[in-house]
Amino acid sequence: MRDEVIDCLEGVGGQLERFVFEDGPPLDRDAVFVVNAPRQHSDLADRLGGTSFADGASR
User: Fold this and answer.
1) Residue 8 placed within a domain
2) Residues 6-58: pLDDT tens digits?
3) pTM surpassing 0.70?
4) In sequence order, which residues have a C-beta less than 8 Å from that of residue 7 and are 6 or more positions away?
5) Residue 30, SS3?
6) Rounded to the nearest 5°, which phi and psi values hold at 35?
């Protein structure tokens, strides 16, 4: 496991080839998995009478 800061992802034609770090050697990979945690960045739902979740998102 590496904990360096990622500078960029490199690849060709939409295919991931490697992670490039701010320091240290690149890491060759052909896939990455991420967790998307959407957050509400507007108070519009609250202004319209919506209910906010604990993380600030509205429903």
Assistant:
1) yes
2) 999 999 999 999 999 999 999 999 999 988 877 777 888 888 988 766 655 54
3) no
4) 20, 21, 22
5) coil
6) -105, 125
